[in-house]
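Exam revision sheet. Question 4 asks you to relate a sequence to its structure. Input first:
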Amino acid sequence: MHVLRKTFAVTAAAMALAACGPQPETSPEETAPESQVPAGAVDDAARAVADAARRTPNELDAQFTKAAGEFNVPVSLLKAISYAETRWEHVRGEEEFEGRPAAFGLLALRGQLITDGAALAGVSADAVRDEPLANLRAGAALLSKYADEAGIDRADLGAWAPVAVRLTDISDPDIQAHYIHNDVYSVLREGAGAFTPAGKVAVSLDATQVEPKFALPKMQALAAGPDYAASIWRPSPNYNARPAGIGQQMVVIHTCEGGYSGCWSWLTNSAAGVSAHYVVNESGTEVSQLVRESSRAWHVAAAYRSSLNGGVKSNLNGRSTNDFSIGIEHGGYASSASFSTGMINTSAKLTCNITRDQGIPRDSYHIVAHGRLQPETRTDPGPNWPWSTYISKIRSECGDGGGGTNPVIVVDSNNANNDSSKGYIAVPSSWARGTSAGYYGNDYYYASTQPVSEPAVFHFHMPAAGSRTIQAWWVQGTNRSPAAPFMITHAGGNSTVTVNQQTNGSKWVTLGTYNFNAGWNKVQLSRWTTEGYVVMADALRIQ
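Answer key, structure tokens:
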């Protein structure tokens, strides 16, 4: 997903990008966008290295070797399972599907496996969830126990296949075969590797020519999905009819909280009682369609509340979100540090197809995070899903180019949602994150009002000079400032607009229309106002 497979050869630009991380924009108090490298300055391989470094910040080879050696398990097998499940990221999963426990660690261990593995390794269940080495030791201990029970030849790497599948919750034999042949043993044959941000090897897995001693998947023609020809039709029994006259009005973006094979396995199991319309794999090389778009999949366990979604579709308040939405699951986790370019591109093509066929607007109110619609229990696809890039790619795929000559720019409080070539936020460390209901994107920043110059700064880029209207979004509350000062820098100088953040929350509020110069411009939200309150920096819209 985010690694260079078969080789560690990378360009100097890739290594520099992987090592440098975020760069300051104007001052030590301000945090610049995640990447200051201009678009196109590095190739896909370089971006893959940088993304992998976010997932693998530490050198892990020694930990894999230690755990495997202690329990006499092939270290290459342990690495391959971890790659298939988490791309070598220590994950802290959520419960995406009712009845399926959350996954944790480099091996994505779940439920009873955590308890049993902890006992075998002599560590606590919390350590298995929280500590990479403890997680690997628990997984290796389980594999060793299963190998003893199966009586396999431990020196035969192919013989470990029936043992490896026992670390998953996949019960269908044919899907088990898919997982073993196409996920675990595929990476063993191809090899893989990842670097740390400092450019050191995080994990290396040399290619090994090995075939698993496991039944092949059933020989059958893989039919294309009935609504999306680039998908594989793997029908789920978990669906019903949509209510008459409501149609498909929204696309909901999810993460599986697990690997791709285990995801569509769970969603096609009648006992699971859940489903989605589509699942996209981690690298973007495969899409499964599970439910027809005209049918009602069971992917959001919550009634719709327009107050969570900018007031859009208020006529649907109280209805099940499943009645009118199409759900797309993605292999991975809400805690994932990054998502592959391949996955984002493939998902964008799929979503373009859905929105074009169903007449769904291509914006962030109609292509929505699961976590926005069900914030009490879900956060997926997580804070690092690249929303601005994703929506732009969808629009580009559909030929509407992301908004014309003067596209609307939204600068969110979470830079993962921003296209850093168009806008970003810089926030001093004295500000804190909040998640009270009604925020835009994933969360917001807030700070107490004081006579200090520590503003949150929204930066946006104008391709040409012109007049634009500035709007702000905040979460209202009784402790909010009744005179929050937004300082707007424009072609004519500086203007300060004060707003009452105790009212008009969770919607766009116009601050004014101004002429701006070409290039970078900014709007600052200051803390310097009447004390005893907080100011809220959530999102800015420039249109």
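Marking note for examiners. The CA atoms of residues 226 and 292 lie 7 Å apart.
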